[in-house]
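INFO batch 0412 | record 1 of 1 | parsing
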Amino acid sequence: MNGVPIILFALAILPAMAEEPSVDQIMARVAENQARAQDMRRAYVYNQKILARFHRTNGKLAREEKSEYLVTPTPAGIEKKLTHFEGKVERHGQFVSYDEPGKEININLDIDGDLIRDMTGDMTADKESKDGLAHDMFPLTAKEQAKYIFTLEGQEVYRGRQIYRVSFRPKPHAEDAEWKGEALIDAAECQPVMVSTKFAVHIPMAVKVLLGTDIKGLGFTVTYEKFDDGLWFPVSYGGEFHIRAVFFYARNMSISMVNSGFTRAKVSTKIAYDMSEK
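INFO prediction complete | emitting tokens
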């Protein structure tokens, strides 16, 4: 009789084991939910704060930009309106303030100015993305998932919710697949909770030698929060890396973004009357 409870317990958990989804099933649902969530985000207006910093290799701050935007939905994606900006750049031991993103500060060659403007735009204002984040950096959509191999690493509890821990890496010879990393997927809703990526492509030694360019520690993390049924927003995003270029330029770069103040966009309808017919 002692073996009966064990048998009953085994029979009880067999259905649960049989229902355990594969990583392909999990990620297919993630792709579907991503498309749905991106459409739902179009109904919301929110505030966005971005902080970009460049440090010299000795640790001293070389340049910093703080930007605030009002983000509104458009039929194609989002529109960002700059509402506040503070910039400063180090010159001869003193900081010079400026009020325009990426502004050049009276020098012959302002690599920092060009790079901070391009980096911030590429990473937080991607026109091919519905939320501004670089569309190929976090492979969650069906199109991007096709370029990667996903592995289910296990299940655990994260912030009080059951999650799947899924790792990913580029498929051999896949084009435009440059990232590897890990995603925490909410088990109940198959929505991303957090995604961390690192640059998976090595810069060829020939490029390093000829162009004097090297990038190290390139990686980013985005976190999501649930606001309504099926509606998850990316609320924070950040990363840092080191770049050395053209033999004499070296910087430690970091960028962070925080989204907040989510409110439903007001829809107004205007009706034009042809007064000539009256």
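INFO post-check: The longest strand covers residues 249-264.
INFO record closed
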